[in-house]
Amino acid sequence: MNLKTNTLSDEQLFEQYKKQRKAYRKSITFWQLVIFAAFFISWEFASRMEWIDPLIFSSPSKVGHLFAEKLIDGSLWFHLQVTLLETIIGFVAGTLLGIILAAILWWSEKLSKILDPYLVILNAMPKVALGPIIIVALGPGYVSIIAMGAIICIIITALVVYSAFREVDENYVKVLKSFGATRWQCFTTAILPASFPAMISTLKVNVGLSWVGVIVGEFLVSAKGLGYLIVYGFQVFDFTLVLYSLLVIAILAALMYQLVEKLEKWLIKNTAG
Amino acid sequence: MSFLKLNHISHQYFHDKGYTKSVDNISMAIEEGAFISVLGPSGCGKTTLLSIISGIIQPTHGEVLLRNQPLSNTASGIGYMLQQDYLFPWKTILDNVLTGPKIQSKETEQTKDKAIQILHEIGLANVVHSYPKSLSGGMRQRAALARTLMTDPNLLLLDEPFSALDYQTKLKLEDLVSSLLKEYNKTSILVTHDIGEAIAMSDRIFLMKANPGEIAEIFEVPIEIRNLQPFQARKHLKYQLLFDRIWEELNELENKHPV
Question: Chain B: residue nearest A184 by CA?
Answer without folding.
Answer: B103
